[in-house]
Amino acid sequence: MLVYATSLIFIVSALFAMLGMGGGMLHVPILLWFGYPLKTVAQPIGILLNGLTTLVALITYARNKLVDWRGSWPMSLAALILAPLGSIVAHRVDDQLLIFLLVLMIFFASIRTLISAKKIEPKAYTLTTKHRLIGIFVAGIAAFVGAMLGLGGGTFISPLLMWLGYPTKRAVGTSAFIVTLSSASGFVARIGHVDTSWVTICVLSVAVIVAAFIGSTLMAKKAKPQWVKYAYSVLLIGVGIKLLLPIM
């Protein structure tokens, strides 16, 4: 069971690293499909793997100068503060409701990414004060909701940065920075609820670290943003349908 789960998580982690996301949106469903409990394994381990994926991706993007450190720190701070609150709230919410909300996030991300895939890549960007305030608000809410569902918030943050005018590669690099911080703080708030073996944690962690390195390197050097977005959207739609069927 662990072998199959690890293989699937490796594949999705590589893809999500190419988008500046951690993959928690699919890590959680994969762990659920293989019988792991939602709140004591799937969600806390999902957010841990999410953070590891974006951390490795962040290193790659930083080396290629694709991270807007200066422009993103207010959004990062908001995400860092609100993610633990989402993790705490998760234990007071019904499992079925959490899964339903996760499906909604999956469909939202797929549709939003398909829309952005058709847009022309901007050559330059300038954040206005209005855009900065919107970014802080959305990043904070994204981190809260993401941590509540076992994610890192990249579902909203990457599309948000693209909407603010960031070129795709700059957006995913900057998103990796914000999501790494929100995942770290979200996992810390859940660490006391983890109930699984260290073998499982270590095997899955190594898999996502390797996958994130491969995915982020491909995105930084070779991948075409539009093709990555289309592949990501199709994958999410399929997962959303799969998750939705058992609770309908």
UniProtKB/TrEMBL annotation:
It is found in: Cell membrane; Membrane. The keyword Methyltransferase does not apply. It comes from the Bacteria. It is a multi-pass membrane protein. It holds the Pfam family TauE. Keywords: Cell membrane, Membrane, Transmembrane, Transmembrane helix. The chain crosses the membrane at residues 7-35, 41-61, 73-91, 97-115, 136-165, 171-189, 196-215, 227-245. InterPro entries: TM_pro_TauE-like (IPR002781), TSUP/Inactive_protease-like (IPR051598). Its main location: membrane. GO terms for cellular component: plasma membrane. Belongs to the 4-toluene sulfonate uptake permease (TSUP) (TC 2.A.102) family. PANTHER family: MEMBRANE TRANSPORTER PROTEIN MJ0441-RELATED (PTHR43701), MEMBRANE TRANSPORTER PROTEIN YJNA-RELATED (PTHR43701:SF2). This is Probable membrane transporter protein.
